[in-house]
Amino acid sequence: MNPIDVVDLSAIFPAEDFRLKMRFERGEPAQFYKPSAQANRVLAERKHWLENTAEACTAITDEGAPLFEELLELAAKWKALPSGSDIASVLRLPPLEQCRWLCERWETDFLLLKPGADGLFRLHGGGLCFPSHWDLRSKMGHTVAEIHEPVPGLNATLGRSIDGFLAKIRPGISWERHNWGLSRSPELNQHPSRKLPRLDDKVTLDEIWWRLEDQSLVALPRSGGILFGIRVTVHPLREVRNHSTACEGLLQALGTMPEEMVIYKGMGRARKRISELLRE
Ligand code: HEM
């Protein structure tokens, strides 16, 4: 079974105050991109969004096309493509179609970055069916700092460390971290245009879901680019409420999170209510 299928709740919600952190763990790319136990359901949902909103899910610049070619070769090496995939014929498709091809076959969303002449990494392509409230097209060509601009305090505290980290990672290793969020909807696709229900002070425990974003950074050896993989899973908040250590950890994070971060994470009208529900 893929480790993604086994969530360690106390590691996601540790007993510590909320803070923005870099904490990466070393992993194997082939393991990160391996199909999960939910592969059939997740791939069917990706197909649905690609058929209905392909222009929101895929994007690639001219500079992104060679990065994608390298990604496909690595994916084949990791045995992370369906058996019988004919890479040579995929590479004859227009670049945007190539992105769509992979997006439909991978459970994981992917972003491709490349350093410019100034050394800063910019976003050059991606396949994103399950965004957590952000829009792929509006971030294309932007640096990581520009992309992170809406995240309160992130550039000020971690911006330089993030750029430094991206510049020094070497091929062959999957550098992994995670983000969590809370939502009033179990939908995997939380594109801003969908206007999904928001958390507020009337929400009930069974209406709240926590989202886990498992992320992986892998250096692309030939181009000097980076593959950023994001695998989203959604779980009932009740699971955390029933896990005493994780529940205390989440309460501590909620209690110590700066107000602007609470608002960014969509909990501006719900922080007190969620804490009460976790204590009941
Ligand atoms: C390398 C270290 C990185 C760290 C520590 C980091 C950290 C974060 C954090 C804390 C958030 C806020 C998430 C939340 O609480 O909901 C965020 C958002 C985001 N990050 Fe990163 N990130 C990193 C790299 C990247 C890279 C390489 C990309 C590639 C494009 C990226 C793209 C994004 C995007 C698109 C968002 C959402 C921004 C929005 O709301 O508009 N991050 N990141």
Automatic annotation (TrEMBL):
Pfam families found in the cross-reference section: HODM_asu-like
InterPro entries per UniProt: HODM_asu-like
Recorded superkingdom: Bacteria
Stated name of the protein: DUF3445 domain-containing protein
